[in-house]
Amino acid sequence: MKRIVLKILMCFILLVSCTEEQIIDNGDGIVKGRVVDAVTFLPIENAKISTSPSTSTIFSDKDGNFTFEKITTGNYSFQAQKDKYVSKFESAAVELNKTTQIVFEMKVSTVDNKPPDVPILTAPVDLAKNQAIKLKLTWTATDVDKDSLTYVVTVKNGTTDEITTYKDLKTRSLELSDLKYSTKYYWQVSSSDGINLPTNSLTSSFTTLSFPDPRYLYVKKVKNNNVIYAADDAGNELQLSPAEVNSYRPRKNLSINRIAYISSDGSLNQIYSMNLDGTDVKKITNFIPIAGFNMDHVNYCWSANGRQIIYPNFDKLYRIDSDGSGLVQLFSTPNGKFISECDWSQDGSQIVLKVNDVSGYNVEIYVINMNGDVLYQVLSGVTGAASGISITLDNKKIAYTRDVSGFENSNYRQLDSRIFIYTVATNTSAELNTNKESGFNDLDVKFSPNEAQVIFVNTSNDGLSAKNIQTASVTGNIIRTTLFQNASMPDWR
Questions:
Q1: Which of 188, 256, 403, 434 is the most exposed place for a label (fewest CB within 10 A)?
Q2: Residue 18 has what DSSP assignment?
Q3: CATH fold label, 120-208
């Protein structure tokens, strides 16, 4: 019996000794390592490094480095510990007379760490107006754990919906230098301690200074839509309509400082108006929309006092008050031709009309009075397209463009469109010599405010190339000047 008990005891001792990890002293090796932050990779000082099986305990220096100068060979588990960090384990085999390298990447513990307080936007104050186009944003931000904070600022253009993000800011301010005139901006600050989820401020807004002198209006293609822009004499540019909406044919009225334009309303085209900075959009037409053979070539006109607008709907001409009331039919073409363009004289007594067939040809340009009586004919009996009509302040001259090639096709392509000036007193039209290059078209002509120049669109006759807005003098030396590139449908007030 004693022998059986002795055998069982010896087996138990042997089993226990087999399951316990043993380090056999076969010599020493060296272990070197470094402790760094897992996010920033900055060194962590005074991290406690221990081993299992247990040997000695050491601490990392100011550079995060540590060294076990003499450690018995074998397999070890090394542990790094530091307040506010999650403990990290690394396995390593220590070999005889060799140096083993270890790197601990420690993550900050979020157990007791609180997120930053909500940032407070301080300048400009919410809803501030007349802010400079170079502006400094400032905010305050605190963190109860005294963590180092970084910031992300998001700025949204309220007109274009374009969003700009400024990342990894270390200070509580941001200089903005690319702001646009007459634009409302929205901004928000996100504060991060690198440990918790970022904390977002409330959204604040401000509006920049009004555009200095928007003398020019025109259209550019953005995202396949027509977008309205204003510009001053220095070339400063301001986008007035959003790129997501097709808006075109801007026309400014100086008496009421409003801009009218055409925009789609479902399947119909309506006339709207807005302030000079693109705000306060109001719909003018409704039951009878503006319409014609091709909306790229359809125009309308303000009255001089800004109280009314005249516009075409196929073969009829309508007048409507600028608030959308008082709709009346002024004129209907006697031959059923479509009215494409109109210009209302400054004194309100005459209206110039350009009419054409359903394809845009068989053009006639004539002048009527407010009773609908035809006063005189400007152009008729020609082939080819015509566009752009403009009457002088004294009602003595009318500018228009005409394709002298007489070319006609289903795409309404023009080959040699030139500018003409009609003189009422002599009932004659004369081509304005603008030194136009062969293979190009001059289109959509209008008199300048002082009538010493004309403004128009110049483009290649291939029907595909970019359009540029140019000016030329009416008399004397003909100087052709390009004002705006990739632009069309100009208005100059």
A1: 256
A2: H
A3: Immunoglobulin-like (2.60.40)
